[in-house]
Write a structure and sequence with these properties.
The termini are far apart. The chain is mainly β and about 650 residues long. The strands form nine sheets. An eight-stranded antiparallel sheet has the order 1-2-3-17-16-18-14-15, covered by helices on one side. Helix content is about 5%, strand content about 40%.
Length: about 650
């Protein structure tokens, strides 16, 4: 449904007589669940309907976000200009909605206006042409147009208006954000979506993305209706889209781009995108579409008893700080999974500003955490967050992305093919990486590079084999205690990696102890389905202990996500590494009657003494976070950081 559509003689009746309106009043509109706050100034709901109403003929699942434009911490972002912007030709960078959210660090996002895709699964950053008026952060991205003239305009103070037919185009001086659709569905409380009833094409039953605005212009509504999924959600006509907007509380609304592009995402507590709806494109292909126009919202966390949670990680330590609205105790729960499992001792001294030093962490490792503060016997916690510790390493590359590998597609179940002594002379190659096979009629994705040796597909099916096997030798000089491996790979879809006959890592495969066989499918796929991005992993501990001085054998089996997948890609870089100690840097600046101490690494406590050889004492607090300011400029105190 995402494309430039030729102008059709669209009927734009913006008013209906009261008598005609009465004929179409809802007979039994669905009841909406209560709004759930997801961020400060942003609420979410998900609802479905029955087919018992005049305005709700089809089975639909709708997801909606209500944006409080009066909240001072709310700001909007539409797709910004691409770097080499050319009006009406190259205007925005194509991204999935999830990529847009992650790249711009907005808290919620939807697909917005129409665009010319060429293909729906192009690489992130592909230049695209968008339709209708688009303004991003006060900068014109796309001019207004006759065919796509229904526009949302918002100024820098979040004063919003919906223009149902922005042609001739109004003056946009002072407009900070604008996105456009092709026609209105709701005007001054009137469901004008009924005017398109019985028309085909874009006016048929489709997944929908729409936006609405309340009569007092305080609330902006973002609406996505799923479709093309029988038994779950069939999609909506224009009149149904308008009816949903009316139920949400909108006075005006416009139809944005829909179909398989209809996607709504929000940021989860670990900073990653979480899809709120079930896109028909994802249901069909497993991948979000790359779209040319987005609308995102910046917001702060929902205020509560616990606020302002920040984390500053280092290699083997991290500092976690937060505030509470009243005096409370201090503790942090943390662990390698969302189940946590470890906790710091509770600091029972009551405070409103809190800081905890986590010690004994592993370098280059991801940790989940949440803070815990108790007041009056009641415990309050933050959402579970995530951070990754630093890893200061001395490294040496032992396998390059363009190195050669031997390969085979034979069924090796039960064979000791991962062992150094296995006879692989009958295998194909060696072939230079990236090794790949792609049976798509459109040809291989040009973003998957650098392409090396092409591999064979299964002649009996016309598709790649489920599993491909690879082996190569390399030399190591850093093996021994404290050594680790840095893995950077382009793999489509999943893999199991072995070092000297020992399994050391599973990538997008069922976790151990699940047995991986020749016909086992990968559990997920990379990026948006192609190996046009890297998987980067640090492998340490017992797994890295299989590294030997001198000769080593690396073996990898790569598995497809489904039996009709059209492509497979494999390429790998490997570094051997050893952790090194890097001292922290402490800066002390005196100006304007104040002394400011700052440091960039977490996991340290500030101390002071009257001389370098004197007795060092923790600065009261203790002080774990940077910067730290002192009234006055002192010349007789020395400061240092310690763990």
């Amino acid at each position: 449904m995402t494309c430039f559509l030729p102008w059709r003689n669209r009927i734009r009746v913006l008013a209906l007589s009261l008598g005609l309106l009465a004929l179409f009043r809802n007979q039994a509109a669905p009841e909406l669940p209560p709004w759930t706050p997801v961020f400060k100034g942003i609420d979410h709901l998900s609802a479905t309907n029955s087919r018992s109403s005049q305005d709700f003929e089809n089975l639909m699942v709708a997801n909606a976000l209500r944006i409080d434009l009066s909240d001072p911490d709310i700001s909007l972002l539409s797709s910004p200009r691409i770097q080499d912007y050319q009006v009406n030709f190259r205007e925005t960078a194509g991204r999935t909605v999830s990529q847009f959210l992650r790249t711009n660090q907005v808290q919620v996002a939807i697909n917005a206006g129409f665009f010319n895709p060429g293909e729906y699964y192009l690489p992130e950053g592909t230049a695209m042409t968008v339709a209708g008026l688009i303004i991003s952060q006060g900068e014109s991205v796309s001019p207004a147009s006759f065919s796509y003239s229904a526009s949302l305009l918002v100024d820098a103070a979040n004063q919003a208006q919906i223009i149902p037919t922005n042609w001739p185009a109004i003056n946009t001086d002072g407009i900070w954000t604008a996105v456009s659709g092709d026609y209105p569905v709701l005007v001054n409380g009137i469901n004008v979506g009924r005017n398109y009833r019985g028309r085909g094409g874009i006016h048929g039953i489709h997944p929908r993305t729409a936006i609405g605005l309340s009569s007092d212009r305080r609330f902006l509504f973002l609406l996505v209706i799923d479709g093309r999924q029988s038994g779950y959600s069939e999609g909506a006509y224009d009149l149904e889209t308008a009816a949903w907007l009316q139920l949400l509380g909108a006075q005006d609304g416009i139809n944005l781009d829909g179909g398989g592009s209809s996607t709504m995402v929000m940021e989860d507590s670990t900073g990653n995108p979480l899809r709120l709806n079930r896109s028909s494109a994802v249901a069909d292909s497993g991948k979000e579409r790359t779209v040319g126009c987005h609308l995102g919202i910046y917001a702060k966390p929902v205020p509560g008893f616990v606020n302002d949670v920040t984390v500053l990680p280092d290699d083997v330590a991290a500092t976690v700080s937060w505030t509470t609205t009243d005096s409370a105790t201090t503790a942090v729960e943390y662990g390698l999974s969302a189940e946590l499992g470890e906790a710091t001792p509770e600091q029972t001294t009551l405070a409103t500003r809190h800081a905890v030093l986590l010690l004994g962490l592993q370098p280059g490792t991801g940790y989940f955490f949440r803070v815990v503060s108790k007041s009056g016997g009641t415990a309050s916690t933050s959402p579970i967050g995530f951070f990754t510790t630093e890893n200061y390493l001395e490294t040496q590359r032992v396998v390059a992305l363009t190195d050669s590998w031997k390969s085979t597609t034979g069924n090796l179940d039960g064979a000791a093919w991962t062992a150094p002594g296995y006879e692989d002379s009958p295998w194909d190659g060696p072939g230079v990486g990236l090794l790949w096979v792609d049976t798509r009629s459109s040809g291989p994705n040009p973003a998957v590079e650098p392409k090396g040796a092409a591999l064979a597909a299964d002649a009996s099916t016309g598709f790649p084999y489920v599993t491909y096997y690879f082996r190569r030798q390399f030399q190591s000089n850093l093996a021994g205690p404290g050594a680790s491996l840095l893995l950077s790979a382009k793999i489509d879809d999943g893999a199991v990696i072995y070092l000297n006959g020992n399994e050391i890592y599973r990538l997008r495969m069922d976790a151990a102890p699940a047995v991986i066989l020749n016909d086992t499918l990968a559990a997920d796929f990379p990026c948006e389905g192609d190996a046009d991005c890297r998987d980067e992993v640090v492998i340490g501990g017992e797994a890295a202990g299989h590294l030997r001085l001198g000769d080593n054998l690396l073996a990898v089996e790569v598995h497809n996500y489904n039996r009709r997948s059209a492509d497979m890609t494999f390429g790998m870089e490997l570094w051997e590494a050893r952790s090194v100690s890097v001292p922290p840097l402490l800066a002390i600046v005196g100006a304007d009657g104040r002394t400011t101490l700052s440091w960039t690494r977490g996991g340290f406590l500030l101390q002071w003494a009257e001389s370098p050889a004197g007795t060092w004492t923790d600065v009261p607090g203790p002080v774990l976070t940077s910067p730290y300011e002192i009234e006055g400029i002192s010349s007789n105190r020395y400061y240092r950081l310690r763990r």
